[in-house]
Amino acid sequence: MCGIFGLIGTPWRDGARAALDTLRSRGPDDSALLDLGDAVLGHTRLAVIDLVSGQQPMRSADGRYTIVFNGEIYNFRELRKELARAGHDVSLFEIGRVFSRGSSAGDSTEVTAAVREERRMGIAITGQRNPLFWRGEDREGRFDVYDLKGVLEEFFEQFGVRGLNYSRRTESTSLFLESSLIQLGKFRIGEFGQLLPALAHRYDLRDAVLLAELNLDLLLARRNTTKGFKPLPVFPAIRRDVAMIVPEATSHESVLQVIRQAKPANLESVELFDIFRGKNVSAGQKSMAYAFTYRNAQRTLTDAEVNAAHEKLVEQLKQNLSATIREQ
């Protein structure tokens, strides 16, 4: 049994397609997973290691067992070594086998089980977001949780896993300062978030460390590689913007859920383009601004049609989210 380490590199989309072809042709064996690690998440493998290597399994607070790692797939010693080699800016992934006891890691229901062996993927990023350059507004920007979420979303899209939901934890855990669970129906696909600063300090990690862990067995079992195509739009789109004041706890996912339930006619896309806190926004609230694009594939929509559908949607947002619409 072995773990696979590597560097997350960009761009990696072409490599992702090649790795997925390998998985389709050879099946999800370890050699195919090794190609997955190289091609999907980077171009350089740091090492292939024996997870057992004479060490005893460690036990996490929730009763789960793993080999070598501190209750999770993350190997902070390897991260520290890479930081020492490459500086403070590092993006790593790892694919390996994890052993757990108790409830299934992939099922949200409590089911007592014997020791389970699962393949997991761990991702860790920390440090500076972009290579050093002599100019640019974001030249000294640091990785944050949204960078990690972007990596995950791109991976899921390329891997063929859709319909995921993200639910933010309200409190910190023994590992994460802040984190979210990733669900696919009743199955827990994984989790991601920011490592507790005390743990980061213990391993000499200077900047915020962003971590993700995914159940690779579940992803392999539930991915859909079917590709759909549709012609480019012929008829014009109509855009409507909405800025609304909502409670601070309101998430983007909860807004999307209301939109899905409302099922507005001819709605093509939804984009969150601004979140604002401050002047003219009360404490405990925030402003979220969305762009709604309407289009019909068969004809040109009229303003009256779009306005009717849009007004119904806005009413649903006001009722379900306790939202107040800001004047344009």
Give an account of the 3D structure.
With 328 residues, the chain is α+β, with helices and mostly antiparallel strands. The chain folds into two domains: 2-222, 2-Layer Sandwich (BirA Bifunctional Protein, domain 2), CATH 3.30.930.10; 238-325, Ferrodoxin-fold anticodon-binding domain (Alpha-Beta Plaits, 2-Layer Sandwich). The protein has helices spanning 13-26, 30-41, 76-86, 145-159, 197-202, 216-222, 252-262, 303-321, and strands spanning 2-7, 48-50, 58-59, 65-66, 90-100, 116-126, 165-168, 176-184, 187-195, 209-215, 238-247, 267-276, 285-294, 324-325. The strands form three sheets. The chain has an eight-stranded antiparallel β-sheet. Strand 3 (58-59) and strand 4 (65-66) form a beta hairpin. Mean pLDDT is 75; it is low at 1-73 and 108-112.
Distance between the termini: 59 Å
Count of the separate structural domains:
2
Tell me the β content.
25-35%
Could you give me the name of the CATH homologous superfamily of the largest domain? Bira Bifunctional Protein, Domain 2
Average pLDDT figure: 75
Structural class: alpha+beta
CATH topology of the largest domain, by name, is: BirA Bifunctional Protein, domain 2
The main sheet comes to: 8 strands, antiparallel
Q: What shape does the CA trace take?
A: globular
Under the CATH scheme, which class of the largest domain? Alpha Beta
Helix content percent band = 25-40%
**Strand ordering within the main sheet:** 2-1-5-6-10-9-8-7
Number of helices: 8
Q: pLDDT below 50 for ≥5 consecutive residues: which ranges?
A: 1-73, 108-112
Oligomeric status: single chain
CATH architecture field of the largest domain: 2-Layer Sandwich
Radius of gyration: 22 Å
User: How many beta-strand segments?
Assistant: 14
Order of helices and strands: EHHEEEHEEHEEEHEHEHEEHE
